[in-house]
């Protein structure tokens, strides 16, 4: 069993590797053209010495290996500050297949736009992309959540007044040409930036015209002849300076009105989380001790403390922001009815409590934070006869219809319907991150593997094939290894089921910046849970 220190070291190594994008040779070739890398562009643009959140870092990790891979999904995405204004920045990484769009690239860019739209944040596109990666075009071109959705979102963001600023800093080809031109501002870098529906080779082959790319769609052409772009700049730095000038003049935003007071650090040492939280996901611990190392002054005001104890609910502040916390208790508890309840399991009483607390937070305009370490809902005749399904449905209903922003962290297990009730990705958390100790699946690796082995051995037996105990154990090991690899927090993050994998100590920053972002979007929808099963 790995220690948390080992898991944190693995995270650090993965991060350092992924920061290299397409690799050192590609970076050197890119910079030889006088261009900044995707990350350098972001570092130059954002306000110095300010916090930022990266999301989608692990997108595509371990995917498309037969195509040479697509680290970071081919782009870098952050929430940060430009001229004092919070915004989303999307920076194409031309060291990864010339910035071409893989299926995961489209998914990541759509996630960036979703974050901008939900929080009404301005968005900056630093464009340097060869367009759709043609060998995989069928997986990225025509469906609802494919490449074309990007431009639909461009139009919708414009219609609701979300500022969009685009800088063409490299190739901008075919359908991708619409992204910067549908933005409010379209800037272009001389010599390296170009934008056209078809490049010179395709123009030659389709209509016979012989023309070079610069004349066809370079900075001078589009700033002085077509009027497609607004202004041209001699280099990346000058172009990025202009974006800062644009942001400097933007007006202020309407606020949602979430409550914030002076920030205080936790009194209890956050570093102690590493020793409290067991690396072995089957071992119990007290989630209250974790919470008290995240919240301001280590103050956590519990709601219905003695009732439904396998879910902790309560009010606190994080970096000054008022929050409502819903967390799975992982230690074994005893109800006043004398029932021993397993930690990490949702019982009828805990689901009932959580539903009521979630409704209270919506009534009082308090953002919700979910800390997941859940193995699922309690099963068996006692639970079924007690109405566990309707109580679970009540909790899901209250959570799913929330109008206040929700933020989810996978601290440990995230299994089955427990993932849903505790605000998994399907329930629109504004941000969702996994700690290095997180794992997500329908059920635990051991349970799933044993079930799958039973199914496979029964299937073989029906065909007259009987396997001995040694063969069955080999099959179990093989299935367990495969299933456990899919439990990894990096597997979830590579598929963008989460926004990333983090050190637990980053949790406060993400919640604080997440609520600050959400405060840009006034709540206009009335909270209504609809039909509640009682």
UniProtKB/TrEMBL annotation:
<dbReference type="InterPro" id="IPR011763">
    <property type="entry name" value="COA_CT_C"/>
</dbReference>
<dbReference type="InterPro" id="IPR011762">
    <property type="entry name" value="COA_CT_N"/>
</dbReference>
<dbReference type="GO" id="GO:0004658">
    <property type="term" value="F:propionyl-CoA carboxylase activity"/>
</dbReference>
<dbReference type="InterPro" id="IPR045190">
    <property type="entry name" value="MCCB/AccD1-like"/>
</dbReference>
<protein>
    <submittedName>
        <fullName>Propionyl-CoA carboxylase beta chain</fullName>
        <ecNumber>6.4.1.3</ecNumber>
    </submittedName>
</protein>
<dbReference type="InterPro" id="IPR029045">
    <property type="entry name" value="ClpP/crotonase-like_dom_sf"/>
</dbReference>
<keyword id="KW-0436">Ligase</keyword>
<dbReference type="Pfam" id="PF01039">
    <property type="entry name" value="Carboxyl_trans"/>
</dbReference>
<feature type="domain" description="CoA carboxyltransferase N-terminal">
    <location>
        <begin position="4"/>
        <end position="262"/>
    </location>
</feature>
<feature type="domain" description="CoA carboxyltransferase C-terminal">
    <location>
        <begin position="269"/>
        <end position="525"/>
    </location>
</feature>
<dbReference type="InterPro" id="IPR034733">
    <property type="entry name" value="AcCoA_carboxyl_beta"/>
</dbReference>
């Amino acid at each position: 069993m790995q220690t948390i220190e080992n898991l944190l070291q693995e995270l650090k190594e993965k991060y350092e590797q992924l920061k290299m994008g397409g690799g050192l040779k590609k970076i050197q070739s890119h910079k030889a053209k006088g261009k900044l890398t995707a990350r350098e562009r972001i570092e130059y643009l954002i306000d110095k010495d300010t916090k930022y959140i990266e999301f989608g870092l692990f997108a595509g990790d371990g995917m498309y290996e037969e195509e040479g891979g697509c680290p970071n999904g081919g782009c870098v995405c952050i929430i940060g500050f430009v001229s004092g204004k919070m915004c989303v920045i999307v920076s194409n990484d031309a060291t990864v297949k010339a910035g071409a769009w893989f299926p995961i690239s489209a998914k990541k860019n759509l996630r960036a736009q979703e974050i901008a739209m939900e929080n009404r944040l301005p968005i900056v596109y630093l464009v340097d992309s060869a367009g759709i990666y043609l060998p995989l075009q069928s997986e990225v071109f025509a469906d609802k959540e494919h490449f074309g959705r990007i431009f639909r979102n461009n139009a919708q963001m414009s219609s609701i007044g979300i500022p969009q600023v685009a800088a063409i800093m490299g190739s901008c080809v075919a359908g991708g040409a619409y992204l910067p031109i549908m933005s409010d501002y379209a800037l272009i870098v001389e010599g390296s930036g170009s934008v056209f529906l078809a490049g010179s080779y395709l123009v030659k082959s389709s209509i016979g015209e012989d023309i070079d790319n610069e004349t066809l769609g370079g900075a001078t052409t589009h700033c002085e002849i077509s009027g497609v772009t607004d202004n041209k700049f001699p280099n990346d730095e000058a172009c990025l300076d202009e974006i800062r000038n644009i942001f400097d003049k933007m007006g202020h935003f309407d606020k949602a009105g979430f409550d914030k007071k002076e920030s205080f650090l936790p009194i209890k040492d956050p570093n102690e989380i590493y020793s409290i939280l067991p690396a072995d996901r089957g071992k119990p611990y007290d989630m209250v001790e974790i919470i008290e190392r995240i919240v301001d002054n280590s103050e956590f005001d519990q709601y219905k403390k003695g009732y439904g104890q396998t879910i902790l609910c309560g009010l606190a502040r994080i970096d000054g922001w008022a929050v409502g916390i819903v967390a799975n208790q992982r230690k074994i508890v005893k109800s006043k009815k004398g029932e021993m309840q397993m930690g990490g399991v949702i019982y009828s009483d805990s689901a009932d409590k959580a539903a009521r607390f979630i409704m209270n937070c919506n009534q009082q305009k308090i953002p919700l934070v979910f800390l997941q370490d859940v193995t699922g809902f309690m099963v068996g005749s006692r639970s079924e006869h007690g109405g566990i399904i309707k109580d679970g449905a009540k909790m899901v209903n209250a959570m799913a219809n929330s109008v206040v922003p929700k933020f989810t962290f996978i601290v440990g297990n995230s299994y089955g319907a427990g993932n849903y009730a505790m605000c998994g990705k399907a329930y629109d958390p504004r941000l969702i991150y996994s700690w290095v100790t997180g794992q997500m699946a329908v059920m635990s690796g051991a349970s799933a593997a044993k079930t799958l082995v039973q199914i496979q051995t029964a299937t073989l037996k029906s065909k007259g094939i009987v396997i001995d105990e040694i063969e069955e154990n080999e099959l179990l090991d093989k299935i367990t290894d495969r299933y456990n690899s899919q439990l990894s927090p990096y597997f979830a993050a590579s598929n963008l089921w989460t926004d990333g994998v983090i050190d637990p100590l980053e949790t406060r920053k993400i919640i604080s910046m997440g609520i600050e972002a959400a405060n840009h979007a006034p709540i206009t929808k009335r909270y209504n849970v609809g039909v509640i099963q009682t």
